[in-house]
Structure prediction request, 370 residues.
Amino acid sequence: MQPSQSNTSMINTLKPNSESDFDIGIFQLAVENASDHIIITDDASRILYANPAAEKITGYSQTEMIGQTPALWGKQMEKKFYQKLWQTIKKEKKAYHGTFINQRKSGERYYAQVDIAPIFDKNKKIKYYVGIERDITEQFELDKMKTEFISLASHQLRAPLAIIKWHASALMQSKNKNFDQNQNKYINEIYQGNQRMIELVNALLYVSRIELGKLIIKPKKINLSDIIRTCLDGLEPTIKAKKLKIKKEFSNNLNIKIDPDLMHYIIDNLVSNAVKYTQANGRVRVKVEKNKLKVIISVADNGMGIPKSQQNKIFSKLFRADNVVSKDADGTGLGLYIVKSIVELIGGQISFKSAINKGSEFRVYLPLSK
Ligand code: ADP
Prediction:
């Protein structure tokens, strides 16, 4: 590409007279010409400098911004969001990275990816803050449209899949004498394949609800041990076929108030992973500890484990570790992403430890409401 006239003249102005002129000149030019919004504030977050991109993105002129705080275009989110930001940059004196909703001078709201870093004097006291914002509204809207499309498609797929399930199970149960062994096998395969599609569609629906902020939580009084047993019963054919030993370390009386469907999803996912990723004759243990404030659910196995180098990706969407991909083609890599999102929405936490060919343990901590 040929350099444009303006680029060429810019390059000419970059020629240093001395080394220090060069440093200042080049940094100033970079900041002035950056497409990202860049501001510098004092330690009380009063704006000392704003680059032209900040004017373009917020709609405020430099004169309108100088002396004000970023609240001029901010203040659109919950108070606790900004409290966390201040906690990070002022108390912990660390850089902050996050996605904000802001408002332009015109009143239009926009999404911004924001990085704020404290700058210290030689006594390690905060002297300035540098804030860099990237307007990601277009990308955000596009992602939202894709998620809405997935949500719509998944909803539409539910009805035909339910019909296939219904008819396939009717054919399986009728033990139709007219079907030979092969035909019965085909019907069974149709049923199993359809089941996998139902699971995938349900997972996609969960993902779209999470990403659109539409996951509804309806806490109810339930007995957690009933949910665990239902999940284990559903896995019984695989447990039997693999001759797995299941250790249940929980009391029969685990009455808690929580959303039963979400709880079922969490347990079913962790237990079915433990069953799926443990070789024949292996062991799976489900343990629950409960006190007044929280419940801790632990699902452990002595199976394939997760390679150390990939453990940091385990809760990412669509992630499947190398050691399982070749052995099991069925997974979606969505389960743990959904589990973590649900757990955090309920106000809990999830952690795990794992060693390759030794096994894994997932622990879920959930706060208890009255
Ligand atoms: P899926 O099981 O459908 O692939 P998940 O999101 O539930 O998706 O899990 C993501 C990945 O994490 C799995 O593909 C597997 O690599 C790893 N994993 C999860 N649980 C276990 C486990 N108990 N033992 C070994 N690997 C596991």
